[in-house]
Specification:
This protein is mainly beta. The protein is about 5% helix and about 30% strand. It has a five-stranded antiparallel sheet. The protein is globular.
């Protein structure tokens, strides 16, 4: 685990700042962001480039015991004037935003739930600045959503929490 960067094969994009009151980069997630509570973390961002017309927020576990990792959250078409999400916003996203099903079939946030004894997992929260107001991704999986970001993403911001079930 903890050895692959899932974004390494994508085009390099400029970065901007992502902060959270709930996630400390590189540190264990709070209980609220773990399976059973399933509360999406507070996120706020700044410094997105000129030309940003919307945002996409995702949460991804690249260390899941699958060839494709595990998508815990995906929200697209967030209006450009929205630069923060309150804790729990996955259940009540900004008007106009599109919710996508996680790999577990939820359209909200699925908390961290690595298999016991599998070691520490990373939970990468990514905010992508997008060059269009609306991606045509209604009903798309997070993988298809991210495929669309290959052509429309103009900058990315990351914060990564960890979790391990002993």
């Amino acid at each position: 685990m903890l050895d692959r960067d899932p974004y390494a094969g994508l085009p390099e994009l400029p970065t901007f700042e992502l902060r959270s009151e709930d996630v400390v980069d590189g540190q264990p997630l709070a209980a609220a962001q773990v399976s059973g509570q399933d509360v999406s973390p507070q996120l706020s961002w700044s410094g997105a480039p000129e030309g940003t017309r919307s945002y996409v927020v995702t949460a991804f576990d690249p260390d899941a015991p699958t060839p494709s990792g595990y998508w815990h959250w995906a929200l697209s078409n967030i209006p450009a004037d929205v630069t923060s999400l309150d804790s729990g916003a996955a259940a009540n996203p900004p008007q106009g935003a599109t919710r996508h099903q996680t790999d577990g079939g939820s359209d909200a946030f699925e908390g961290a739930a690595p298999p016991p004894g599998h070691g520490p997992h990373r939970y990468i929260f990514c905010v992508t600045a997008v060059d269009t107001e609306k991606l045509d991704v209604e009903g798309a999986t997070p993988a298809v959503l991210n495929f669309n970001l290959f052509s429309h993403g103009i900058a990315r911001a990351f914060i990564t929490g960890t979790h391990e079930e002993k």
